[in-house]
Amino acid sequence: MPADVSPLVVVNHLGPEVGDALGRFGGRLRVVAGSREAEAPWDWTALGAERADILLTGPSRNWKQAPTEQPVAWASGCPGGPLWVQIASAGVDGFPSWLLRGRIVTCGRGDAAAPIAEYVLTALLLRAKRLDALRPTGPDDWTRDAVATRDVTPLDSLQGQVLGVAGYGAIGRAVAARARAFGLRVLAWRRGAWTGDGLAEPVGSLAELAAQVDHLVLALPLTPETAGCVDAEVLAGARPGLHLVNVARGALIDHAALLSALDRGQVGFATLDVTSPEPLPAGHPFYTHPAVRLTPHISWSGPAVRANFARKLVENIESFLDGRPLRDVVDATRGY
């Protein structure tokens, strides 16, 4: 790098997990350590960064509590606002709208698609095979379960069932590919027009999707248009016994409407990795409802997720330094 070119200032909220990725750029970057858990993660003065070109950050409680108005230091023409923000998560609903506007924003879209798809298929198989419920503790239990499974309630099969995917991006496609391997027919609804891709058949609306499928997977971004989209009307028209799987955002679902649908059997089961809020308050019915499997927002977890993000980060930094387009740019007007 020429001596008269200053290094780009990177404010790093992600800590050592991206240290190797940043280190390979040597003197082309000046990294300033920050924290998304700080009371004001957007306050450059507290970091000693008189200017930030790049911000690396991720979801946090404090970002959700950020001011609704853009801080003065982030305003157009001021030196404090970064030119590019790289977010570690796929969703950007937990960040203030001003962060997404007036600059390049990229996200972790697709980094966790494989583990999330595996979580979904696990949920479908558990629903069909009931392996978590069939745990005999002695010979009498063993005989009872064997007879019941043979004569009364045989194990179900995914073969020939219909899976619906609401939101057909990287996660939806990963789910569809794995579902097809188990013999499921896959229908998908997405906001933009499309004609199918060989894995999934297009459906015109969320209500139409819910009415036709045995399992409905939510893989939608949370935006003003999708908030509460799984409401009482959609659930009332769902195929009886529907298995609802949410690996996206809890606020996509009207929780009261889902509870009512579960209680009357319209929805047969719900696998919820996400809720609104997180965690749910003590005593919430989802904790103990017999037709709900609740997990603590862990479907994204997998051994390669951080490596996927680090690889994308390196590619994006190289592109940014060279003036080339970046991967997985967020459309602020659409919210994803």
Automatic annotation (TrEMBL):
<dbReference type="GO" id="GO:0051287">
    <property type="term" value="F:NAD binding"/>
</dbReference>
<dbReference type="Pfam" id="PF02826">
    <property type="entry name" value="2-Hacid_dh_C"/>
</dbReference>
<dbReference type="InterPro" id="IPR006140">
    <property type="entry name" value="D-isomer_DH_NAD-bd"/>
</dbReference>
<dbReference type="InterPro" id="IPR036291">
    <property type="entry name" value="NAD(P)-bd_dom_sf"/>
</dbReference>
<protein>
    <submittedName>
        <fullName>Glyoxylate reductase (NADP(+))</fullName>
    </submittedName>
</protein>
<feature type="domain" description="D-isomer specific 2-hydroxyacid dehydrogenase NAD-binding">
    <location>
        <begin position="143"/>
        <end position="299"/>
    </location>
</feature>
<keyword id="KW-0560">Oxidoreductase</keyword>
<dbReference type="GO" id="GO:0016491">
    <property type="term" value="F:oxidoreductase activity"/>
</dbReference>
<keyword id="KW-0520">NAD</keyword>
